[in-house]
From TrEMBL:
Organism: Magnetofaba australis IT-1
Protein's name according to its UniProt entry: Putative protease
Ranges of residues in domain DJ-1/PfpI: 4-166
GO MF term (any one): peptidase activity
Alphabetized UniProt keyword annotations: Hydrolase, Protease, Repeat
Length: 184
């Protein structure tokens, strides 16, 4: 059975993070759905326009193994302020499924209450939101604590995406995706 991942996006999310996550997960054979909060194409933080696979409303009730939130501002704030996203994070956590976020987006995990007692990281400007949500800050580029995975920002997006693959499919599949990328 193929792993299924939902990647919600909003206006002004970080495109480098979004595309890196989606690209590497799909290279691993994972079924990824990019879902926009609102209908239509989404203009990302640097002006790149992404055509989502679906609107969030149409896919929110589907079953997923992992929810991944890209960062970027104010995109991550839009995700954090959307009651559907907060409820989905809580539903995924209650079902013992993966919740993951990068850059500014871990603030939504904090808002949903899933960082309580967890090691987590984010873009440094958002550390206070993580600690307010009960997280213990990690110095790692990618922090994994149970079914919660967080990362710092655009520069860590590839490491983050590879960790998502490893968490879902194992180290062998991660290595199979990573080898042809020719990382140093």
């Amino acid at each position: 059975m193929t792993a299924r991942v939902l990647v919600p996006i909003a206006e002004s999310c970080e495109e480098l993070e979004t595309v890196t996550i989606v690209d590497l997960l799909r290279r691993a054979g994972i079924d990824v759905t990019i879902a926009a909060l609102e209908p239509g194409p989404v203009t990302m933080s640097r002006g790149v326009v992404i055509l989502p696979d679906a609107e969030l409303e149409d896919v929110i009730d589907h079953e997923y193994d992992m929810l991944v939130l890209p960062g970027g501002m104010p995109g991550a704030e839009h995700l954090n302020n959307d009651a559907r996203i907060i409820a989905l994070i809580q539903k995924m956590a209650a079902a013992n499924r993966y919740t993951a976020a990068i850059c500014a987006a871990p603030m939504a995990l904090a808002s949903a209450g899933v960082l309580q007692g967890k090691q987590a990281t984010s873009f440094p400007a958002f550390h206070d939101k993580l600690t307010a949500g009960g997280a213990a800050l990690s110095a790692d580029a990618v922090a994994c604590d149970g079914k919660v995975i967080t990362s710092r920002g655009p520069g860590t997006a590839m490491d983050f995406a590879l960790q998502l693959i490893e968490s879902l499919l194992g180290k062998e599949q991660r290595d199979a995706v990573e080898a042809p990328l020719q990382r140093p």
